[in-house]
Amino acid sequence: MKQKHIIIIEDEKDILEVLEYNLKREGYRVSVSSDGRAGLKMVRQDTPDLVLLDIMLPEIDGLEICRILKNETSTRAIPIIMVTAKEEESDVVLGLGLGADDYVTKPFSPKELIARIKALLRRSSEINESTSSPSITLGPLKINPEQFSAQLFGQTLNLTNTEFRLLHKLASQPGRVFSREQLIQDAIGDHVVVSDRNIDVHIRAIRKSLGDHQDFIETVRSVGYRFKETMNKGL
Fold it and tell me: What's the mean pLDDT in 199-205?
């Protein structure tokens, strides 16, 4: 099996060393950068399997790096975990809204972080390698898991790994209500602690990608979400 490559972009030396040590011990190939601009260049050149990204960085901050990577075709499918001391809700929402797949605040447990990394890498591999998940066509929406592609009226939607999985899950059974817990388990992993708020942020990002058709995803108060049943009949 090919060794997974992780790039860490972090300017705090002690944290960088802890992350690098623990990830190498888990068998990952690790590259590091303490500078935002250099880290961005590294990701573009090497196309890693996952990026650990701090927010407060010299030259270019992590939020801008995340925005850039998620808007470039060659890098937008790379899972990103934001690692930062900032824990205000606005920062969580902004980071996830820009396309980050997960968010961990300092101080963090290396064990928990590694569990999140393994979950994201597993989900990413399932998307890229699975040939069993069927394509879905609902009116103008076409979802192809093998190509990691979702199109609406012929226009490709710019979705992160997690957002793609959530959309595919919801669209696979129009009209069925999925709880937030079910969506967390399918899109991220049942052994990783993720708040309901993270799922809500990802759903908002999917709706934003759907534009004028964001009502395809309906909120079921106090329960979760469902895909509009009438989509199954086309528009």
Answer: 86
What DSSP assignment string belongs to the chain?
A: -PPPEEEEE---HHHHHHHHHHHHHTT-EEEEESSHHHHHHHHHHH--SEEEE-SS-SSS-HHHHHHHHHTSTTTTTS-EEEEES---HHHHHHHHHTT-SEEEESS--HHHHHHHHHHHHHHHHHHHH---SPPEEETTEEEEGGGTEEEETTEEP---HHHHHHHHHHHHSTT-EEEHHHHHHHHT-TTS---HHHHHHHHHHHHHHHGGGGGGEEEETTTEEEE-GGGGG--
**What angle is formed at CA 27 by the lines to CA 117 and CA 6, rounded to 5 degrees?**
50
Q: Predicted confidence band at 216 (pLDDT cuts at 50, 70, 90)?
A: very high
pTM of the model: 0.64
Each residue's pLDDT tens digit, 147-168:
778 999 999 998 877 788 889 9
- Give the tokens for residue 156: 């490709």
